[in-house]
């Protein structure tokens, strides 16, 4: 599968080094180490983590000396629980920051009623179920964010995510049906689709024409089995190693994922995002493993 002729850049997420939801995972590691090791492993870009400087000049300097680019940052929407205006204001601040750094995509997710950060909540039993009213509220807000981004020459991609009320494809399709496709794209994530019990290949096949950003990670089937049997939370699942990099797990059909991308007009970033405990899974080693795997499979 040759992707070398596509306008695709490869990036890494700092969550593989230091975890935003579980600060104790990689708490001792600096953002400079994250950026340096990403570059050392052969990646061109990084998403932004909670340790990264909020000053444009500082972060731009640290990226420039490593030949790295910023490509995206997670944005939490709270349309279900707070006044719409609050989310819109925070989004404006973030897009100003990202645009100045050269990023043109924002991954957005509704987290008003999420359980993703609550270690006491069972992943499947306690996941929120959104009402029709909440779906409409989120869609209305997302269309506004999409228009704000478009006015700046940017795009947003909705990130379906475990524990948020938009994790199954049924939930995702419901939300997507309410949204203007010209304003809101899709952040495709192999790991969250697989964890939710969906076929990542089918999800990509359905939404490839709306995909504006890609996260690649695999899932370990033995850990997923335990998560279900022992009724673990999302954070417990991460600690136990539910996710890993492409080339290491056993649940994602990578050949068909890359085939769909190669047959599409997708251009943009492909980001390795496989949050693990860095004490158990050396981030540089796993970044290099993922980089080798992608080269072997795609020529990138």
UniProtKB/TrEMBL annotation:
Highest taxon of source = Bacteria
Q: Which UniProt keywords apply?
A: Lyase
Any GO MF annotation of the entry: myo-inosose-2 dehydratase activity
The record ties this protein, via InterPro entries, to:
IolE/MocC, IolE/XylAMocC-like, Xyl_isomerase-like_sf, Xyl_isomerase-like_TIM-brl
Q: What is its EC number?
A: 4.2.1.44
Which intervals hold domain Xylose isomerase-like TIM barrel? 39-296
The enzyme class is lyase
Any idea what this protein is called?
Answer: Myo-inosose-2 dehydratase
């Amino acid at each position: 599968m040759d992707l070398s002729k596509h306008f695709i850049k490869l990036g890494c997420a700092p969550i593989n080094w230091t975890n935003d939801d579980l600060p104790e995972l990689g708490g001792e590691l600096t953002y400079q180490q994250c950026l340096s090791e990403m570059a050392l492993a052969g990646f061109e870009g990084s998403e932004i983590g909670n340790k990264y400087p909020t000053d444009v000049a500082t972060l731009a300097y640290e990226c420039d000396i490593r030949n790295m680019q910023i490509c995206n940052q997670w944005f939490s929407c709270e349309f279900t629980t707070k006044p719409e205006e609050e989310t819109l204001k925070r989004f404006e601040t973030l897009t100003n920051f990202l645009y100045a750094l050269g990023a043109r995509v924002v991954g957005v997710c509704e987290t008003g009623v999420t359980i993703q950060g609550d270690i006491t909540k069972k992943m499947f039993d306690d996941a929120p179920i959104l009402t029709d009213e909440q779906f409409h509220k989120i869609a209305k807000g997302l269309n506004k964010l999409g228009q704000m981004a478009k006015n700046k020459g940017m795009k947003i991609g909705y990130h379906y995510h475990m524990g948020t009320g938009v994790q199954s494809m049924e939930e995702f399709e419901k939300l997507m049906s309410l949204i203007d496709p010209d304003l809101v794209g899709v952040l495709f994530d192999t790991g969250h689709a697989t964890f939710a019990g969906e076929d990542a290949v089918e999800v990509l096949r359905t939404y490839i024409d709306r995909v504006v950003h890609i996260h690649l990670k695999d899932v370990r089937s033995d850990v997923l089995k335990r998560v279900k049997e022992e009724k673990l939370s999302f954070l417990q699942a991460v600690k136990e190693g539910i996710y890993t990099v492409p080339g290491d797990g056993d649940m994602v059909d990578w050949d068909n994922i890359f085939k769909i991308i190669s047959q599409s007009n997708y251009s943009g970033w492909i980001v390795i995002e496989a949050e693990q405990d860095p004490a158990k899974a050396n981030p540089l080693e796993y970044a290099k493993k993922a980089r080798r795997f992608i080269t072997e499979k795609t020529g990138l």
